[in-house]
Amino acid sequence: MEYIYAAMLLHTTGKEINEENVKSVLEAAGAEVDDARVKALIAALEDVDIEEAMETTAVAAAPAAAAAPAAAEEAEEEAEEEEEEEEAEEEAAAGLGALFG
Fold first, then answer.
1. For residue 43, which of 7, 75, 84, 11 has the smallest C-alpha distance?
2. Which candidate, 21, 51, 14, places its Cα nearest to that of 3?
3. How far is CA 73 from CA 67, 70, 78, 79, 83, in A?
4. Which domains are assigned to the chain?
5. Per the confidence metrics, is the pTM higher than 0.70?
6. CB distance 1 to 24 below 8 Å
7. In Å, how far from its chain's centre is CA 5?
8. What are the DSSP E strand ranges found in 28-100?
9. Backbone CA torsion sign across 85, 91, 95, 98
């Protein structure tokens, strides 16, 4: 992912996305640079409109980000329901224990 981030950073700052610049960004970040991966990235991005790809990804990520809090809230509600059920079972078991002394 750091290779893609390097390319995105270069694009955002208006720098040319080439092997030398990608290597420089990665080295500045302290990452180990694999020349083959850098070359593959540059080749893969050759016909890609990065601006369009970033906008498309940002739009697709927005609904997913909005769904995350709802899913967390739902999981919390389920946990509360399970706790209530366990408490009810414990109370019922305690009541039965009193019957048999």
1. 7
2. 21
3. 10, 5, 9, 10, 15
4. 1-48 (1.10.10.1410)
5. no
6. no
7. 14
8. none
9. positive
Cβ contacts of residue 9 below 8 Å, gap of 6+? 25
Token pair listed for 27: 């080295």
Pull the structure tokens for residue 97.
């224990």
Mind listing the pLDDT tens digit for each residue in 27-71? Answer: 999 999 999 999 999 999 888 888 888 788 766 666 666 666 666
- Provide the residue type at 100 as one letter: F
Cα dihedral: 79, 84, 89, 93 (round 10): 130
Distance of CA 38 to the CA centre of its chain: 23
